[in-house]
Amino acid sequence: MLTRRSFATSFLAGAAVMVASSATSAKAPSTRPDRKSSLTGNLAFPTRYRTVDIDGASVFYREAGAPGAPVVLLLPGWPSSSAMFRDLIRELSVNYHVFAPDYPGFGNSEVPDRSHAPYTFDALGEVIGKFVDKVGIGQYVLYATDFGGLVGYRVMLKTPHRMTALVAQNNPLFLSESPWFGPLVPYWKAGTAESRDNARQHYLTLDVVRDLYVTGVRDTSLIDPEQWQVDYSSLQRPGAADISLDLLYDIRTNGSTLKRAQDYLRAQTPPTLVVSGKNDILFPAENQQRYREVVPNAEIQLTDSGHCALADRSEEIASRMHDFLRRVL
């Protein structure tokens, strides 16, 4: 019988093998057969699994598509990783050069000790900014979801005019008063060991991670449970839980960054597509509609899904992205 503990152990062992072999896979051609895009019928490029050193830490990323094609940078949300983009990467790689990194402490990236550097959104923004430069990305379309926006906006603001378009999927541009954040409020206000422990006991549970995937979804049988199981198991890595708690605490500092992002987007009006799940418990339809307050011409095409809309609406979102990017790039 597969217990939660044995599942976590087997997953972590597999993740370690993946990271160890990523440098080799970056050099060797893929032996997997080509797969076709379900949307275009064209051959999709194989996904490469690579690592790059950023300030002494190994950052894992997925890459697919033809060099020289327009770049799409995929930034994941909490508590997931680039794994959430598996299907989308395949669909987009037909026409675009796709990069999807894991943040330090998440997915298959290294987990640097918290005593060496703080885990904040400013710090993650610095890492992803350096990642963009190191892998040779010039301009890019930013696909951001959840934490991905808080990180991606920082990259956007530090290197203006490199973002050619924005695709938002359940991504905050305005603060949300969702009840999901309720148990975090005492932690934000007090920042004590007790409030941190209370946040740990609530948020770092399989039920909360699972609910991010299934809440607001019409047909949960379309969602592979391995997705939330893997996310939860990743949180069990040594040090990973405290990294998540640090970042959940740092959410309270993002008001000024969101204001700066709003001002930048209002001034530059980049092509913007919102493909969020309208039943999201964190950033529901009315929150995502507010993109038009900043970018009046934003295309808002909400899907009948929840927070992790790619889990059951990946093909629909990919189709809308193909149509959007074909028109604006």
UniProtKB/TrEMBL annotation:
It comes from Paraburkholderia solisilvae. Residues 70-312 form the AB hydrolase-1 domain. Its EC number is 3.8.1.5. Transmembrane segments: none annotated. It comes from the Bacteria. It is an enzyme of class 3 (hydrolase). GO terms for molecular function: epoxide hydrolase activity; haloalkane dehalogenase activity. The keyword Hydrolase applies. Keywords: Hydrolase, Signal. InterPro entries: AB_hydrolase_1, AB_hydrolase_fold, Epox_hydrolase-like, Haloalkane_dehalogenase, TAT_signal. Residues 1-28 form the signal peptide. The keyword DNA damage does not apply. Coiled coil: none annotated. This is Haloalkane dehalogenase.
